[in-house]
Amino acid sequence: MKKMFLDTSFILAYVNSNDELHENALRLEETENVLSQNCHINNNVLNEVLTLTGRKINIAAAEEIYYGMIDSFEILNEYNIFNYTAKTFDLFKRIVGSNSGKTKLSFTDSSIILTMQESNIHDLVSFDQQFKNFNEINLIGLNYL
Q: Is-contact 42 69, C-beta < 8 A?
């Protein structure tokens, strides 16, 4: 079974039938069997998914998704990474730097990259194109846009 890290963009598209990428997420899951793999997220992704689900759908849906995620995914505690915030910020500065107006990469995205590196995970399921610039990441999802 493959170790995969799931990004907020995929999870939200998969669970929200009103998301513009919902059909893409369903097709991706059907083709790649993503959810039957060894799926990982970190607390930042969990927080983003719950916040955005609560806003876009409702709190009851966020609660249902919360319990589904904690039952189905391994939640990696990024705060167990030594100097996590400093390392994430260094990565964020290096990646965004003078490109701040040209990239959509967020601090949370930087935390995903760091968490994946520290956990030896190479496959990322995401619809966010900013991850394609990282050679060490096998980005799964762009072919479904």
A: no
CA distance 145 to 140: 11
Residues 17, 26: Cα–Cα separation, whole Å? 10
Q: What angle do CA 88, 141, 33 make, to 5 degrees?
A: 110
What does pLDDT average to over the chain? 93
pLDDT, tens only, 68-111 = 999 999 999 999 999 999 999 999 988 887 666 667 788 999 99
* Domains of the chain, first to last: 3-79+120-144 (3.40.50.1010)
Burial class (CB within 10 angstroms; exposed 0-12, middle 13-18, buried 19+) of 37: middle
- Going by C-alpha positions, the residue among 56, 81, 53 that lies closest to residue 67 is 53
Match 């759908």 to its residue by tokens.
Answer: 57
Q: How many CB atoms lie within 10 A of CB 72?
A: 11
